[in-house]
Amino acid sequence: MVLCCASMNKKHLFFILKLMLTTALLAAVINYVDLSMVWERIRSVNPFWLLASLRCLAVGYIMCGLRRAWIAEGLGIGVSRSRKVRLYFRGMFASLFLPSTIGGDVIRGILLAKSEGRKGIGVAAGASVILDRVNGMYALLLLLTFSMLFFEWSISWWVSWLGVVGAAWLGMLFYPWIDRHLVGRLPEKLGKLKGLPLMQKRFQRQWWRSLPVSFLFQILIVRAHVFLGMAVGLEMSWFAFSIMVGLVALVATLPISLNGFGVREAGYVSFAVYFGASGDAATAMAALWVIVLGIASLPGAWVLWRLGGLNAIRGKDADLS
Fold it and tell me: 236 in the Ramachandran plot: left (φ > 0), alpha (ψ -120 to 50) or beta?
């Protein structure tokens, strides 16, 4: 009972801290920009740019669903690709609208583990979610590094950045050695992790097959932001958009705010000002991005409703048909 209360108090404390940071960041943005100018930019938006951005995002979601299906197949989880796409949309809706304690990745992992009534695939299902996120991260690092070549940075920044990126890629390329010398020494209680077929040709083929898809997805996300930037008069180069969107996405994945709110808006404004663009326009773009995200995630709300809402996540029998 004491442990349960301590756990609940810890969750409440984390929620309060996230709420405080989210509120502080949003307040800082509101205090910095001219809200009347932000509203004027939003009010005068041509819907064409919203539709163009929405189209990029929807195509990107479908591609991510396909990528997740490939990685799951590489781990030996047979699931239809259309089902994986639906799982992705459900997760995106959860990431944006449901409490941050119920993350989109968590939902995707749980529902995949429950699919078709199969048992004993929980570890593989969880690994597929994590590996899918890692695959996308590698693609994002590549895009960011390429985009940074078009700007002048200090030597210390390049050394730090290339050190991180190089370490990440070396870690992946030398994983066979890690698997052979370290993973095999894990304690028996983690035996299921040792059983993941990460070194088998089937998984390796699906992993490398997924990387170009991840890279194209990142390009589509940047392009979606460029369309919104054009809608509100945010004048930056494509590569500046890429750096802004990519670095903010990296920070927003950290569990430090409520579903990324605050971090995303403050990040967009900060990078826009850094690149000599308008903070008001960046704020307007951030607001439109939330709208586009919400619209693109609506299919996930519909399929989650068909499953019975959050009971589909907490219950023992999720009908994923």
Answer: beta
